[in-house]
Amino acid sequence: MDFALTENQQAIVASVARMCADFDARYWRDCDDQARFPEEFVAAVTKAGWLGIAMPEAYGGSGLGITEAALLAHGIARSGAGMSGASAVHINLFGPHPIVVLGTAEQKARFLPRLISGEDRTCFGVTEPDAGLNTAALETRARRSGSGDHYIINGRKMWTSTAQVANRIMLLTRTTALAECAKPTDGLSLFYTELNREHIEVRRIPKMGRAAVDSNALFIDDLKVSAADLIGGEGQGWQCLLHGLNPERILIAAEAVGLGQAALEKASDYARERIVFDRPIGQNQAIAHPLAECWMELEAAWLMTCKAASLYDTGVSCGAEANAAKYLAAEAAFKACERAVLTHGGMGYAREYDVERLFREVMIPRLAPVSQEMVKNYIAERVLRQPRSY
């Protein structure tokens, strides 16, 4: 059992830190204040070749694993970019994986190089307003044309990130009515296709935090999609989706830990520098002990994240570990961000100290891509063999 990073992984960490150093707290504060997508940052990530970190070398990627992708995501969030920085490139790190695993050779050659080079930007349309986490209940419908060479898609999607700047979309649909399926997860199909704004209305959702990276409601009206854009075959959408679930949880966990550590660093610095009653406030155990707890909990969450990533990369089942990592990281990061605001006192409420921005953003890993309650259900059922409660 070796907890040390390899030389290559250490080089990744160092390189990501150098790149992120060019984007200071003011940059991220301005992006958030102005609800402006961090184009300059994404350009830097693209130029450095990080978008293809987990994609095959044959198509221009680095051919590395989810462990290296997690180190990248963690380093971005840890730099102070938080979820604003990590979410700007998040979809490229795991979203195309169904293409890698189940796409045809022609689809891989057509899609992957353009994603890796940044020529294409994608978003992921899965969640729906009347389905939520019950993905099998989604109602977006793809009907095959009489000629069979294309589909017509109609429906709605919610919380689709980066749709304002994307030109492609990974779109999960139902091709067979739920009533006609033997299992609820049957009859789903995944498409990777052009985000045609003549047939997809994209409405931005004003939200609490991470204003720099858009979240949207999508209204899809008679979208024509070539059958050549179907990934994995008709009815295999659920299997396609499964290839992205554990990597996404691992990446969200890595980002949450980085976010929490960024907040903890700001709190620790402030506790050393802030003098009240002729002494630094960090000299008081009421300040120091909660910060120490946050450090320990973040480190523990990071270990679970690395374990889940290692298991995934070696082909070992990691559903429990990936879900646990997401849960533990979200809780530890929330506690660290809350403590950072409290440590700053009144100034923790001021934008210039940035901890309020991190505190607003830390709600994302607690809510997405799966609720904390559903993670508990998963562990109770799959690990502890308890009866299903829903």
Describe the structure.
The chain has a four-stranded mixed β-sheet. A four-stranded antiparallel β-sheet has the order 2-3-7-6, with no helix packed on it. It is built from twelve helices and ten strands. The model has no long low-confidence stretch (mean pLDDT about 95). The radius of gyration is 21 Å and the shape is globular. The chain starts with 6 loop residues before the first helix and ends in a 7-residue tail after the last helix. It has three domains: about 5-115, Acyl-CoA dehydrogenase/oxidase, N-terminal domain (Butyryl-Coa Dehydrogenase, subunit A, domain 1, Orthogonal Bundle), CATH 1.10.540; about 120-240, Beta Barrel (Butyryl-CoA Dehydrogenase, subunit A, domain 2); about 240-385, Butyryl-CoA Dehydrogenase, subunit A, domain 3 (Up-down Bundle). By secondary structure, the protein is an alpha+beta fold. Helix 7 (about 235-275) packs antiparallel against helix 10 and helix 8 runs antiparallel to helix 9 (about 320-345).
Number of helices: 12
Question: What average pLDDT do the residues reach?
Answer: 96
The value of Rg in angstroms is: 21 Å
Q: Tell me about the biggest sheet? A: 4 strands, mixed
Helical amount among residues, as a percent range?
40-55%
| Domain module count | 3
